[in-house]
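queue> pop job 88
queue> type: inverse folding (structure -> sequence)
queue> payload:
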């Protein structure tokens, strides 16, 4: 049997209780087994435990009474029984237990009335693999085609594994947890949302294509965000001479999921590359923010009109900004810096960076820096 490779993750273990959220298949459980090897483990995917604690939370408290004072406890799939958080809160205070509360959905945890431990637990996110986490095994072509989800990484047939992941998401995350009432409508919505990867979100257009009400599709988008498979990138209001767009852009958390949700398999086609590469850069930046606190906020900026100047990412740390443009082409083109040049007068803008698949670093006469994707963490000083 081929031995499974274990790649080190960049997420640091907090010293206090924490929520650990992340999409299914990002390796949360494997990381916890290595980061907290001596923790007491409660897996709410076990149907017997789930049913027992669902009927009466008392047995959970009795089980925790046998755990040594000050010990770590991992509760996996906490979103299945958020009411256990009341007991967790009490045990943290009375027995000084430290909890990792792990899950793949924030939806039920955000519900009104759920005890979120009053700030006594910090929040962490587990993302798909970063390129530097897999080291020499990283291939940009494979990342764009199959994505970076750890659950897909060892599969011999990755296209088949991604299709299975999409089916599993609908069955286990959506249907089993009863997150939507209109499952057929949600199933129609998913491939349409995949086609919108890297585009400005237009809920009315999405609703028309999916054949559901606008309010319904707004709820569908929230479900994708709360199950951590996608995110909206807000527009930045730079207050320059032109009026900026205000609608957010939509990204999935992984290129492989984009292709799986729209039913694409096989080699990449040229039309896919731009959005997939831009999305990979977006997700990589989010992971840097969450793992390393590399910056405070991330936006995009674009002038009005379909052909106006645009910048894919504008990251802020304190009062300083870095503008980043992602281009998937193989040959540098002069027009790639159009948006970066339009944003030059933004107060606090310290650097303007182009990111492209491969090639040597460059610097233009007007100060725009260019780096291949593999050099992004070094270019931004995140290593």
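queue> result:
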């Amino acid at each position: 049997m081929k031995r499974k490779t274990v790649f080190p993750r960049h997420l640091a273990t907090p010293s206090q209780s924490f929520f650990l959220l992340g999409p299914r298949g990002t390796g949360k459980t494997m990381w916890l087994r290595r980061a907290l090897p001596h923790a007491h483990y409660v897996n709410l995917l076990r149907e017997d435990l789930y049913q027992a604690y669902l009927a009466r939370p008392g047995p959970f408290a009795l089980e925790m009474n046998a755990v040594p004072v000050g010990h770590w406890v991992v509760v996996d799939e906490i979103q299945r029984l958020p009411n256990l958080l009341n007991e967790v809160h009490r045990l943290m205070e009375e027995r000084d237990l430290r909890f990792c509360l792990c899950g793949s959905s924030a939806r039920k945890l955000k519900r009104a009335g759920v005890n979120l431990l009053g700030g006594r637990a910090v929040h962490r996110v587990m993302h798909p693999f970063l390129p530097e986490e897999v080291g020499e095994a990283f291939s940009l072509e494979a990342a764009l085609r199959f994505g970076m989800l750890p659950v897909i990484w060892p599969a011999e047939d990755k296209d088949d594994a991604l299709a299975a992941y999409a089916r599993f998401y609908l069955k286990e995350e959506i249907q089993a947890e009863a997150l939507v009432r209109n499952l057929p409508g949600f199933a129609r919505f998913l491939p349409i949302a995949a086609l919108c990867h890297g585009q400005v979100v237009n809920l009315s257009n999405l609703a028309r294509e999916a054949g559901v009400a606008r309010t319904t599709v707004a709820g569908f988008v929230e479900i994708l965000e709360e199950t951590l498979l996608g995110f909206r990138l807000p527009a930045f209001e730079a207050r320059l001479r032109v009026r900026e767009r205000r609608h957010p852009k939509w990204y999935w958390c992984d290129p492989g999921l984009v292709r799986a949700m729209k039913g694409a398999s096989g080699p990449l086609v040229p039309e896919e590359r731009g959005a997939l590469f831009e999305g990979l850069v977006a997700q990589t930046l989010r992971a840097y923010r969450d793992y390393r606190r590399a910056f405070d906020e991330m936006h995009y900026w674009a002038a009005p009109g379909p052909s106006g100047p645009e910048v894919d990412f504008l990251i802020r740390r304190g009062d300083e900004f870095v503008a980043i443009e992602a281009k998937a082409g193989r040959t540098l083109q002069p027009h790639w810096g159009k948006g970066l040049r339009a944003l030059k007068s933004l107060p606090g803008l310290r650097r303007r960076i182009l990111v492209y698949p491969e090639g040597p670093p460059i610097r233009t006469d007007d100060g725009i820096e260019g780096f291949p994707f593999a050099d992004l963490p070094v270019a931004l000083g995140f290593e």
